[in-house]
What we know:
Blueprint: H1 2-15, E1 20-25, E2 32-33, E3 41-42, E4 44-49, E5 51-52, E6 57-58, E7 82-83, E8 86-87, H2 90-103, H3 106-118, H4 125-137, H5 141-155, H6 161-173, H7 177-189, H8 199-211, H9 215-224, H10 234-246, H11 250-262, H12 269-282, H13 285-297, H14 304-316, H15 320-332, H16 339-351, H17 355-367, H18 374-386, H19 390-402, H20 409-421, H21 425-437, H22 444-456, H23 460-473, H24 478-490, H25 494-506, H26 513-525, H27 529-540, H28 550-562, H29 566-578, H30 585-597, H31 606-618, H32 622-634, H33 641-651, H34 654-669
Antiparallel strand pairs: 1-4, 2-3, 5-6, 7-8
Helix pairs in contact: 2-3, 2-4, 4-5, 4-6, 5-6, 6-7, 6-8, 7-8, 8-9, 8-10, 9-10, 10-11, 10-12, 11-12, 12-13, 12-14, 13-14, 14-15, 14-16, 15-16, 16-17, 16-18, 17-18, 18-19, 18-20, 20-21, 20-22, 21-22, 22-23, 22-24, 23-24, 24-25, 24-26, 26-27, 26-28, 27-28, 28-29, 28-30, 31-32, 31-33
Amino acid sequence: MLKCSKWYTKLLSNSFPKxxxxxxxRSSVPPCKFSTPPFQYCPFSxxxxxxxxxxxxTFRHDDVDGEIEHPLSREIFRASPKLxxxxxxxxxxxSLIENYANLADFRSLGNVLDRIKREKRVLTEKCFVxxxxxxxxxxxxxxxxxxxxxxxxxxxxKRTVKSFNSVLNVIIEECEFSRALVFYSDVIGAKNMNISxxxxxxxxxxxxxxxxxxxxxxxxxxxxxPLRDCIPDVFTYSTLMxxxxxxNRIDEAVSLLDEMQIEGCFPSPVTYNVLISALCKxxxxxxxxxxxxxxxxxxxxxxxxTYNTLIHGLCLKGKLDKAVSLLDxxxxxxxxxxxxxxxxxxxxxxxxxxxxxxxxxxxxxxERGHCANEYVYSTLIxxxxxxxxxxxxxxxxxxxxxxxxxxxxxxxxxxxxxxCRQGKPxxxxxxxxDMVNNGxxxxxxxxxxxxxxxxxxxxxxxxxxxxxxxxxxFTCNEFCYTVLIHGLCxxxxxxxxxxVWKHMLSRGFKPDVVAxxxxxxxxxxxxxxxxxxxxxxxxxxxxxxxxxxxxTYNILLNAFCKNGSISRAIDLLNNxxxxxxxxxxxxxxxxxxxxxxxxxxxxxxxxxxxELVVRLLKREKIIGAxxxxxxxxxxFLPPKASTWARVLQQLCKPKKIQTAIDRCQRSLxx
Length: 670
């Protein structure tokens, strides 16, 4: 037997020059008979793997554009009598197909398939499924469809729902959902194929339809499943629920949860997670919490994804203490929190100005044996600096270094920005130098933070020098230009700001509303109100997302009022209201000051603001009207009785009252 293996290895070595031949004992492979005595059979399955000795890696034909060929020796597939549909040598072909598919060596795989076709060998459907799976991993849906169409004519292999589902899955995994539906329709509707869909087929089609937003069609397919002698499984229900939730049809999705349990299909954690996530995004935390309780009652243990979804919803609503309590409950239920869990709560605490509480959670996290990642460090460092806690932020930075952790660019960015906020741009430059030495390339955010820091300390010349340096060695973006223009205008350097503005336009960048507002502010401060007005009109011609905001309007309103152009200010206010921009407290203060100082006789502004409230109510701008009413009360300028009546009428509409009641109930139960 040993001599036989040596003989067969030599035979294959001649077929694969400079190759590596690996002999694997496979008792399941039918014995290969040889006419050469004294060897009657060889109980080895031979797998030939081309091998490059120089680079010690497996050859792939697509790496060398076909320059290297791996010829298949005819001796391997020596002609021999057929045994039914099986020919001696078929098992070797199957092994080659499997190995080339696993290696994604599609050129060699094609050579094998061509030879099989020429010799009119019969391939089993299992081989095609292996190939389809390989095409899927390589993102080649076209190849999968093409081979599926050749299965019968070229390889005498009958197509069944198994191979059909494999190709359908490849198409869907490539997010070609419309193509998947067309493929399904063509194959199922073809009489010559005679393929009947099974549950997996329906699940895939429902998934494709939901991804395309065709939820009603997906429901029709779902109702058709029992008529095809199939029973929907948990994947079917979960996929359809996800589609309904994405279309904001959450009540229907919840009803489907009840239906599946009546039908004897038990929900999985994924099923509950779909509904809980949708309810949390909607802000209905009470129903989400009830679903979690329902999970426990059904013996379905919430996963970390379930807890993370609820915690995220609580943080979005500002219910951070409840989020921390849920974290403790999660640990009690022996569900291990991950980076997302801790990161979500810490980020929520920092956003609500509770960075110190974030530090306490950070310490608790470390005590539980969970090492914080760089994003947690960056969030805490940034939050501490924003709250003016310089010492605590630097202590956390040192803690990171002492633990041997290597900060990434996100941590460096948070530290540099924080130091600049504290008026320490020189120290921030030292951190930047250390960051570059550690192999990190600064981004636009870091450079913008440094420029802000120099402007804050009154060192505008350093900001300009930094911009000149990054302009020559780094690609500036709109954000860098906006920061520089804003800083220059604030420091009265209008000429330099205009130069940067022109340079920005010449490079093809479109200024945002902040850049426009900064330039208008700079022009108005130097008495060039008309140029500022011209720039404002230019801003109005831009696309909707770059329209003036309340800050822009306030800048021009203030400029007009200072010049005594009250009528122009009123016209601008009307334009502001027509464009749907609500006035704020600053707007009211500008107008009230002008009415007192610029008019003869002076006015207290009560009638003016009262009329403004009525106009906003007519436009159903409830929030804007409420803001002005608050200003009036603070200034001891009470609205008229008729205005009060209109305000109460708007606030006390049945739908608004019911919404307020629902909100109160949710806060009580959640």
